[in-house]
Amino acid sequence: MNPVIETQRLTMRFRGCDALTDVNLRVEPGTVFALLGENGAGKTTMIRILAGYQKPTSGSATVCGVDPGSDPLGVRRQIGYVSDAPALYDWMTVAEIGWFAASFYDVPFLDPYLESVRRYGLPEDRKIKHLSKGQRAKVALSLSLAHAPQLLILDEPTSGLDPMVRREFLESMIDLAATGRTVFLSSHQISEVERVADTIAIVHQGRLRLCKPLAELKDSVTEIVVALDDPLVGLPALPSPAELLTEESFGRQRRMVVQDLPASALPLLREATGVLDVQQRQLTLEEIFIAATKGSLGPIADHAVTREEVL
Ligand SMILES: Nc1ncnc2c1ncn2[C@@H]1O[C@H](COP(=O)(O)OP(=O)(O)OP(=O)(O)O)[C@@H](O)[C@H]1O
């Protein structure tokens, strides 16, 4: 099946800033795809390129079969998009902005929009400028969904929403994916994303660090804590295809977070000179995110082996 979104070596340079570098992404239809990254990682830049609001410096993107750089309107007709700061005409009422937006589409728009507005309990005759932040977010979401797009691109969709509405909204994303639509969202809310996303991509300083289906990601990234008889002991290189995400030392303990660790790695480490013990543990998505973006998970947790336990 053709991907809904595909990018190849997508790169965006601003003056004095590499916002995205060589990002290759593939988003399958009918999935909820979450883009995670710290502040300034490049999420909004990526989303603006996909929605046709920004042309990349180099590389290519295809969204619903269209190049957003050369046909931004063609892309926007096919997608629903909510930016991180939706620009709504403030002087219009909630109902008026629906009528206005409906004029851009030749598919049913106003009825589904008003249905969504009522479901969110929004006051139809109140001006946008008098709405709260969360209410404005709900208007933006209602507008983005009304034309039943095959792809929804959402930049931080739940910021400003209260916990009940956040939950309701994220669950509705799963329902959308179940009907074959695709949801591409960026977020900082790792625990929320974990509940709804099929695939997770983690960007760090403009580069794609990890991108996998959620379950596969959690299975493939592992923490190894090695107890050493001397802090200066050198460990053997990890066998291929292992990729070291982080490595830290805490006294006589060495912690590594590794992706795609082959089974042969643990015996190799256990038999290495100066190694007293090796413990392995699966990580939560939040820990994987921290390892991929900040490098340090902080002090080794209680569950990890201590030298005293080994001796
Ligand atoms: N128009 C611009 N001119 C110069 N630099 C820019 C521009 N737009 C974004 N940047 C820079 O590109 C980098 C990525 O920004 P971006 O907004 O994509 O990050 P983000 O991951 O969405 O962050 P946040 O989570 O804080 O919203 C940042 O360093 C930002 O300062």
Automatic annotation (TrEMBL):
Cross-referenced SUPFAM superfamilies: P-loop containing nucleoside triphosphate hydrolases
Pfam families, per database record: ABC_tran
CDD domains given in the database record:
ABC_DR_subfamily_A
Domain (ABC transporter) spans: 5-230
Q: Which UniProt keywords apply?
A: ATP-binding, Nucleotide-binding
User: Could you cite one Gene Ontology molecular function of this protein?
Assistant: ATP binding
What is this protein's record name? ABC transporter ATP-binding protein YtrB
- Gene encoding this polypeptide? ytrB_1
